[in-house]
Amino acid sequence: MNELTPIAPVIQEIKTVLENARSNVAREVNNELLTAYWNIGRIIVEYEQSSQDRAEYGKQTLKELSKELTREFGKGFSRANLYNMRLFYLTYEKIQTLSGKLSWSHYCDLLAITDDDKRSFYEREAINSGWSVRELRRQIESSLFERLLLSRGDANKEQVLELAQKGIEISEPADIIRDPYVFEFLGLPEDKPVMESDLEKALVAQIEKFLLELGRGFMFVGTQQRVTVNNTHYYVDMVFYNKILRAYVLIELKTTKLTPEAAGQINMYLNYYAAEVNDADDNPPIGIILCTDKDSITAEYALGGLSNNIFASRYVLYMPNKEQLVKQVEEVLNRWHTKDSDQPLLDE
Q1: pTM of the model
Q2: How far apart are alpha carbons 206 and 259 in whole angstroms?
Q3: 316: number of Cβ within 10 Å
Q4: b/e per residue, 26-57, with b = 16+ CB within 10 A?
Q5: Region 149-169 average pLDDT
Q6: Number of neighbouring beta carbons within 10 Å of residue 105
Q7: At what angle do helices 104-111 and 116-129 cross, to 10 degrees?
């Protein structure tokens, strides 16, 4: 009797075909939905422009449209959603600029951002990082845009536009650093002392959210990774691998301000990883000291002159004051505008 031909490869191939088909269908449905909502917005705007009483139009027409469309087509046509469709068209006047990688829910959150540069930044980063709607909301609520600007020092207008146009480009170790990191998802009290071991356990328990806060390309390796030097065991608090930079990232947690001893400690760990752990294809490891506070002088003397990539960043256990951050960004930009206007004009 002939043996039965194994069907496992056949099943796997069929699964692949079906999964690809479902993915393609979902993508097409999303694209068609975005196109439909954009066109609905266009129609609403065109009727609004032709209306003699625009104020009355704004009060009544969306409400009437909502009732009729909901009765005819079901959910999805609330007055708020129709308003977003109208704003969708006004914000993205060229339909070609829409990305099928983002859903309508993504765009609704983006439309709530009035600043064009900030919206463009979050849009591009959501595409580049594959953020879900929930992830996009968290990054907006944690003021990622403002924090990135502030972490780069006196950011000028060109840096704002570069961020808005390209998103976060990761090409060197400094590109993955944020300051401050926001750990509000841990739920730890900000008015009580926290031990380093407790902070580490809390971060591991919320590792998915911690990875989101770290940024793109991070993979978790483990905690308390042993480093042995001259028969003495030391332990790195947390180790990650960034697949974009192809480098290990070693994190030391400090519940105090930055100290020179912390810099020396992580410098030793980096030397060990470079010599004993790195593969031939790995780039030099990166060290991050997460501390409650740091001053520029201490950081300069503690980290200056070291051949390894070591960075010190603050972390906070609560959301930053968004209004204060925006005000600081505006002050930085105002200083740049003032400085730029003081420069003499060159003859063409």
Answers
A1: 0.74
A2: 27
A3: 14
A4: eeeebeeebeebbebbbebbeeeeeeeeeeeb
A5: 66
A6: 13
A7: 150
